[in-house]
Here is the input.
Amino acid sequence: MDDIVIEDLTKSYASGWPGRPPFVALDGLYLTVGRGEIFGFLGPNGAGKTTTLKILLGLVRATGGRALLLGQPAGDVETRRRIGFLPESPYFYDYLTAEEFLGFYGQLAGLGHVAIAQRVTDLLSLVGLADARDRQLRKFSKGMLQRIGLAQALIHDPELVILDEPMTGLDPVGRKQVRDLILSLRDRGKTIFFSTHILHDVEMICDRVGIVIKGRLLASGRVDELVRQDHTQSVEIVCQHIKAEGNAFIHSLATRVLQQGQQCLIVLPSPDAVDAMVGEIRRQGGGLLSVTPHKASLEDLFFQEAAPEASRVQADSLTGRAF
Ligand SMILES: Nc1ncnc2c1ncn2[C@@H]1O[C@H](COP(=O)(O)OP(=O)(O)OP(=O)(O)O)[C@@H](O)[C@H]1O
Ligand SMILES: [Mg+2]
Here is the structure.
């Protein structure tokens, strides 16, 4: 059974200017997220990720199409109790301590005092904030706020967890902690749907991924399937004691040839030509130093799929190269 089903979802925002057409944020989005899956919803700034998540939570009304969560229409109040949500910009009550803040959300979720006390302790240690239990949120760093937001989303032990950019604002250690947390939730049978623009995080943990650009799904599937699709693996060969310059055979097979002194780097577009190239190197009496296949990454796929659509700036923001 799918925990999330999105069919032909559209959302237009009024332009706010007389005579100007509405802005189309979602343009016929289709998506399914299976039970127990970690699904990464990947797209550049303005792609429509937050809009989609808000529609799923019933915070924004779709213009058309339909969205089902746990078999019920998005926004259903009863179903909402079974869903945890981390918003993109959560609002924090500055003067509450971490414990009070989580306790407050525990009460909202209808938990009793004993359950809240236990849950708060468990969650604070789960998100690495056990030491900050009595600290006011106004004294929290950005990364700490992100973590307490995550704990808040999990207070009522939801079946389906929806997170809008959960790794944003976190340092590499914090990002790893959130990834591990998401994996441990999956191990406990939860379904996790999270948006991000950081490809690496998706590649590390997602069972499936959907790439959204301008409100449309460009591609979806398992990460390994997506990167395999139509994706030739290039192969780098490093050898020595050959003369590549002027060798028509080598240049006809290679996409790049770089001679540096005795050594030569040859890049082949696919593994098919490796045998022929190695034969040529041997024929010349050269020595083989290494043969390295290069696995296509989600980043390659993203650029291939999105390049005509997304601007260079957007694409750069996706690589998460800031770290
Ligand atoms: N309330 C609104 N009124 C008008 N336009 C809106 C509104 N909310 C979002 N938009 C527009 O819809 C588009 C999608 O926005 P959305 O916030 O869903 O993108 P996103 O994928 O979450 O981006 P980001 O990675 O920056 O968070 C954007 O162009 C945005 O300007
Ligand atoms: Mg967003």
User: Anything to note?
Assistant: The mean pLDDT is 87. The first strand starts at residue 2 and ends at 13.
